Amino acid sequence: LDLITLKQIWFDLDKMEPIDAERFLNSLIQYVNSNSNASEDLREETLARLNYQAVQLKRTNTGSWFERAQLDILQLIVRNGYGGGARFVISCLIVTLFFSLVYQFKYPTDIAALINSDKPEIKSPPPAGIGLVRRLRASVLKSILNFMQSMWFSVYVFLSPKFPSEIFPRTPSFQLVASAEWGLGICMMIIYLVYIASNYGFIRSLLGI
């Protein structure tokens, strides 16, 4: 098999014994590494595909529940590093959307205080004689604004490399939720650097991997 063919096919390893499938993939990986005539990009793309199949083989045949859970989570978030960029972005959007909804429905007062720098929110009564449709429209617009504020705060916490200390004056449960999102964001960024960004040569040299 040439490298171009190896880069384009998936092997049906389910019909093989796990140990035989592992040996088969290892032999192909050694073949690709020893093929000095092919371009470096072609070798890297082929190795990425073969290594991904090796990880999938390990994921489905490992006897350790912890290792299986770890590989399942990485498969869900970043596809274990093989073409997982889009899946990572979707995972981040889902996480921030989830926390945005939590902030909006459980902690609207805390979010409003943070956004307005602790200035009290001025609530003016609706004008006399205002119609039901206008009141409903105003309520919907306010809900949209509150959600946008919650979304902004969620994205800020999720992407912040520094712990958001401004949450400390708020309620204890709000501090706990925001801290959980921040910690999850840090873990996601580490996963991104190791499994996605490390596919680029200059990132690998920076990370030393």
Query: Would you identify the regions where 5 or more consecutive residues have pLDDT less than 50?
Result: none
Order of helices and strands: HHHHHHHHH
Tell me the structural class: mainly alpha
Give the count of helical stretches: 9
Mean pLDDT: 84
- Oligomerization category of the chains in this entry: single chain
The count of β-strands is 0
The first-to-last residue Cα distance is 29 Å
Tell me what portion of residues adopts beta-strand conformation: under 5%
Instruction: State the shape.
Output: elongated
The radius of gyration over CA amounts to 25 Å
Q: Helicity range of the residues?
A: 55-70%
Largest sheet: none
Question: How would you concisely characterize the structure shown here?
Answer:
Helix content is 70%, strand content 0%. It has 209 residues and is mainly alpha-helical.
Q: How do the strands and helices of this protein lay out in sequence?
A:
Layout: H1 3-6, H2 18-34, H3 40-61, H4 65-78, H5 85-106, H6 108-115, H7 132-159, H8 172-195, H9 201-207
Helix pairs in contact: 2-3, 3-4, 5-7, 5-8, 6-7, 7-8
Description:
The chain is built from nine helices and no strands. The relative contact order is 0.09. Helix content is 70%, strand content 0%. It has 209 residues and is mainly alpha-helical.
What key phrases describe this protein's structure?
209 residues; mainly alpha; 9 helices; 70% helix; elongated
